[in-house]
Amino acid sequence: MAIFKAALVQMRSSDDMAENIADASAMIREAAGLGASYIQTPENTCLMAPDGGAKLSLTFPEDKDPALPAFRRLAEALGVWLHIGSLAIKVSDTHVANRSFLISPKGEIAARYDKVHLFDVDLPNGEVYRESATVAPGANLVTAELPWGRLGLSICYDLRFPQLYRAFGQGGCSFIAIPAAFTETTGQAHWHVLQRARAIENGAFVLAAAQGGVHANGRATYGHSLIIGPWGEILAEGGKDPGVVIAEIDPAAVSAAHGRVPSLRHDRAFA
């Protein structure tokens, strides 16, 4: 497989959807100008609402969402694979789906993934998150074929469930997408080690675009978008601020990692 460039768009999204679409689009164009063929944005690309109620009031069903057509046109205009980390898509009067979209260079939706694991957490510092109150969970493992190999789709809190990524690894995925809006608190403790572990365990590239900084709603996200090689090495990393993170990807590194540690073939059942 040919070497290519992958780029991550790190954002600090607000509750202004039009502003977020414009910001994301500008950085996607920047990434394409740097030669990226695959470009990923973070979770909640177009909306970081103050609470679940606000999110519901500001979202649309997929066929009426204003962001998706804009991103489809952009992917086609730039001729890139554009992976929108997630949009909030209204699926009922009380719930949205936290949904990733992989868009082909023809502007077609190549894959959709609804976040399976929802972030319902009480942190020691008093932060409380109840994603399930307004988000309907997905139920399906989703992969997609890129020109350079198979991609496994996931979102943020999914990162903590290694069985999902084992299925990607054993299903032949060379690339794993983990767009996120990790909290500052949990990110400082776990972001790097978990991302590197998912790459090492499965001998796959990990591509994780992130939200970073203090948002208009007061929430602080960790940033540090990461591109990680299949041996666990960090190939590129963002900081706290919005921007583009880019790295050259050699798909041959996947088979090399599998040859050095063939653990994907060594799973055993146990009682």
Written description of the protein model:
- 27% of the residues lie in helices and 29% in strands.
- The chain is of the alpha/beta class and 271 residues long.
- It has a single domain, classed as Carbon-nitrogen hydrolase (Nitrilase/N-carbamoyl-D-aminoacid amidohydrolase).
- β12 and β13 (220-222) form a beta hairpin.
- The chain is globular and about 50 Å long.
Task: Throw out a few tags for this protein.
single chain, 271 residues, alpha/beta, Nitrilase/N-carbamoyl-D-aminoacid amidohydrolase, six-stranded mixed β-sheet, 6 helices, 16 strands, 29% strand, globular
CATH third-tier fold name: Nitrilase/N-carbamoyl-D-aminoacid amidohydrolase
Number of H/I helices: 6
Morphology: globular
Instruction: Work out the count of structural domains.
Output: 1
Question: Which secondary structure elements does this structure contain, and how are they paired or packed?
Answer:
Layout: E1 4-10, H1 17-33, E2 38-40, H2 52-58, H3 67-78, E3 81-90, E4 96-103, E5 109-114, E6 120-122, E7 128-130, E8 143-146, E9 149-153, H4 162-170, E10 173-177, H5 184-202, E11 205-208, E12 212-214, E13 220-222, E14 226-228, E15 234-237, E16 243-249, H6 252-260
Parallel strand pairs: 1-2, 2-3, 9-10, 10-11
Antiparallel strand pairs: 1-16, 3-4, 4-5, 6-7, 8-9, 11-14, 12-13, 14-15
